Structures are given as C-alpha cells and as structure tokens.
Amino acid sequence: MARRSAPEVNAGSMADIAFLLLIFFLVTTTIDTDRGISRKLPPPLDETVEPPILKQKNIFVVELNKNNDLLVEEAPMELKDLRAAAVAFLDNGGGIGDEACSYCKGERSSSSSDNPEKAVISLRNNRETSYGTYIAVQNELVAAYNELRDRESERLYGKSFVQMEAELKDVNYSGSKDRLKDQIKQIQLMYPEKLSEAEPKK
Amino acid sequence: MSKFKKKKGGELPAISTASLPDIVFMLLFFFMVATVMRENNLKIENRLPQADQTEKLDKKNLVMYIYAGKPSSRYAASAGTQARIQLNDKFAEVSDIKPFILAERAAKREEEVPFLITALKVDSDTNMGLVGDIKKELREVQALKINYTTRQGEATGNL
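ok -> structure tokens follow
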C-alpha cells in the first residue's frame, strides 16, 4: 500500500483566532496621549528662611472665592478679561533707573509692576472653589505669560515661543539644539513665570 | 464531442480568503506595538476640565497618576458621595499618597526618578480643598513636577 500523504491542516479558523486577539488588544489598550497644564510646586517651606518682602504694587492678587467668583485686586472680574489684565500687569514696566524694562510695551504706570522680573502673580483660592474654575484661571494666567513670550521671541528670533519649544522636542529638527535652548532660556529670563499659590483658606 | 464540454456551468470561483489571517495579524501587530495597556479601572467620575495652554505628556512610563472625584454610582453605596482619591485600582486617603509616590519611585530606575511627573486627573466638580491636600502631600515628599491633565478646549467651558 502506498504511503498516504499527511492531510492538510484546515486554516479556515485562523482568521477568527486572529480577530479575537485583535479585539482583545483593541479593548485593553489605549493609544491617546494625555495633555495638560504642567506646573512646578514650590519645595517644602523652610521655617528659618524669611520670606522676601515684596512691594504691594509688584503683586497681582487673583482670588477665587467659594462661589467661584473671580476677584482681581479685590475687584470682581469676568474670566475673559483676566488674560488682558495679567498681560497689562506683567508688561507694565513702571520701574526707573536700574529697574527699568527696555522691552516692555505697557503703560509704564507707577502704581503697577516695576518689571516682569519683579512682578508676581498671587493666586489664592478657597477650599470650596471648584477645580474646573481653578484650571480655567490657571489656563488664562499661563496664556498671559505665553502671549508675552511669543511676542518677544517673534521680535528677537522671528518665531513664536511655543514653536521653539515644539522644535526642541522634535527629533527631526535640523538646526542647532543648543542655540535653541539658549534662546528659550533667554525668553524665559525676560518673562519668568512667577506664580505663587497660597494655601487655600478654610 | 465531450471535448468541448469541460466547463460546467458559469459558476463564479469562490474568492480566496487565505490571506485574510495575514491581514488581521498585520492589524494585530500594529495595535500591539502602537498602544499601551490600560492601567486603571476608574471607580470615580472623571470629567476633566478644559484648557488650551497645554503640553503633551510623553513617556508614559515616567508618569504617576492620581485620580480624584466623586465615586461613580456603582460605588456610591460603599464609598459615599464625597469626592475621593483613587490610586491604582483602590480608593485611598490623603495619607496614602506619600507611600504611593515612594513605591512608584522605588519601582523606577534611579536615573529616571528626577524626571517623574505626577499627573493629576481630577474631576472638574471637585473642591479645591481636596486638590490642595494632594498638592501639600506631594510637596512634602518632593514630587514637585505635576501636570493638571485636561481636555483640549476653551477654558471658559469650565464655568
């Protein structure tokens, strides 16, 4: 008797098995990357160090009360006006002599901040304030800094600050990254992000 | 005469599905490579606030997640209706954050530790009191890099 050839394995259900695996991976994995507002918390307070004394005019007080109302310098304000108010405060440049700010384009009023390096935004919130409102305010304040930084980097280097940061992360960027880093640092020095947050009130 | 009658009828030949598994496997490998495993099952409501001045969070293995919000309706009976913190798959207290951060740090390589970011995924209806407590704990354990995870959108949508 001639030897029988081995019967072929039926591969018709292979597709079903593969589909099953595919659906499992579709369900159990995620592809989206998260986005968010990055912040740096202040290090724990050292009791022995005296807090520096700031002039009242160099502080921009933003307060959120328990009813989610926005108070800027103790006057109520709509959220949509906050960005412009913060820009006006940071860009005021009212200092004279050593404290003068050569690149500021603000009103140079003597009752507002001396220069962007001295200007501090103080954000206070209540324990009852909702997180959504808080993020909205944070977003507007970050936007104010970004607006000023964009303006200066546009003037000095011909591209926006946000674009420079994106290029720094881009692996395919063709120019010199060291120079880009220096430029970003330069802009950050011109408008340092000084956002202080007090402990929430009870 | 039978020479000319070889073709029986006008039946269409069946489409070969032999390459279907190959196509499906290709898709499968794409998804296996391009995605990461879902880490947590949410036990809380997590409607993130909106913002437009955001940065991307790359390098998922360097991110620690802290969730907070009201327990979802399934867990309301056992966990109450007040906003709670969720770490990994469990409800947690504020005091559990420090051990959690230290455990996460211990699981990473030493040179990666300074680059760890804490992502706060907090429901937009939560009170700032809870968020303030979380931030206080993070400051004490020197986890200073944080990221308020948001959806993309206009900030005025939060009000």
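Helices of chain B lie at 20-34, 76-79, 97-107, 128-140.
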